[in-house]
Amino acid sequence: MHSPLPLKTPIGDKELTVMMASLMALNALAIDSMLPAFPAIVGNLSLAEPNSIQYIISIFLLGTGVGALVHGPLSDRYGRKPILLIATVGAALFSLACSLSTSFEMLLAMRFCHGLMAAAMGVLVVSVIRDKFEGDAMARRMSTIFLIFMIVPIIAPTIGQFVLLFAGWRTIFDLMAFMALAAAIWVYYRLPETLHPENVIMIEPHALAKAWKKVLIHRNAAGYMLGAGIVQGALFGYLNSSPQLFDEVFNAADFFTIGFAIVALGIAASNFTNSKIVERFGARRVSQTALISFIILGSLQVAAAEFAPTSLPLFLILLTANMAMVGFIGSNFSSIAMTPFGDVAGAASSFQSFVKTILAAGIGAAIGQQFNGSVLPVAAGFVLCGLIALGLVLWCEHGKLFTRPGTAPKIPNNPRG
User: Fold this and answer.
1) Pairwise CA distance, residues 1 & 85, whole Å
2) Distance between CA 355 and CA 213 in Å, rounded?
3) Average pLDDT of 385-396?
4) Is the confidence at residue 322, as pLDDT, over 60?
5) Less packed terminus of the chain by CB within 10 Å, N or C?
6) Burial class (CB in 10 A: 0-12, 13-18, 19+), 198
7) Helix %, strand %, coil % for the chain, to 5?
8) Which CATH architecture has domain 13-196+203-396?
9) What residues does each domain of the chain span?
10) How far is it, in rounded angstroms, from Cα 288 to Cα 389?
11) Using one digit for the tens of pLDDT, what is the confidence trace for 165-189?
């Protein structure tokens, strides 16, 4: 679990934060840079059903969910660094394989494998940060990572569109492969091992089952994990159908990259704000306030879909505000769910990532496939997902919101509640 080469200078918190954010950003790039290429792929691979192009996103997310179960336990046994190295190189290779695909079925298969490798860049980022921090301090750093990470969704569609001006959609995959390889080199030379020797866990089925069981029976961890996945599912529902929304609903396909960037700015702004306020107010207070706002804004989106269905400015205002709420919810829910598991951070993070991603991918695909030329399926998805997540939070907190760990009502020793 030692670095292959001695570090000339120890890595600082800032470089570590940027490195972890860059690794996570590769996943955002793998999703968002492809969105402008949807029409070209539909034509090039002769897809009969336009909504089926959305599976390019869903199958990648499915791969990241399944891969999360693998990388976490491996990193608990062999260390964070070697698994990150293998995964980033693997992501580069499968991204190249995507560019060589000759059919839609082959493309989906390679995207799934790409997702399997890319999963490490989500799971192990959380594990590395949890190795070094906990509680609100972890939430603040995760929010900073998400802030840097969110620059990519702002610019990724523009990158994809720029590539399409000079080359085909396959070149986008080539670019992703190059970036993954560059990240692997950075990890090799600069990342120290963060897994403490006393926290090494042998890869044994009963040990994994024990760690996963700890997550499932811990009331707060399970509830916030599921809540995060459900809210993320609403986000994926928008993401899957976003090119079609701009093209078919608002007749503004040329405005897609700008509109997408505006919406992504909402999440970036909220993560920046969260990093400044979460240690003062607490992850629960901030995220629960955001969740209630998410439901209210979703309801306004439903009303707008009914009374102003083709108003792009109103759509962007409400959607950007709602995406900002997702920014407050995501990092804080994840931090709350991970706090009890410092001794099994890799296995706990991988299992939580698996559950959240599979849940979100399934919900997102279901919402996306309901696209019918209207904003209503996405808007209704926001409201329904928000209400379910709020129910889970109320269950976690025994019906009492806006508490902090030091002031929350005591929970019985039985973790099942």
Assistant:
1) 12
2) 13
3) 96
4) yes
5) C
6) exposed
7) 80, 0, 20
8) Up-down Bundle (1.20)
9) 13-196+203-396
10) 10
11) 999 999 999 999 999 999 999 999 9
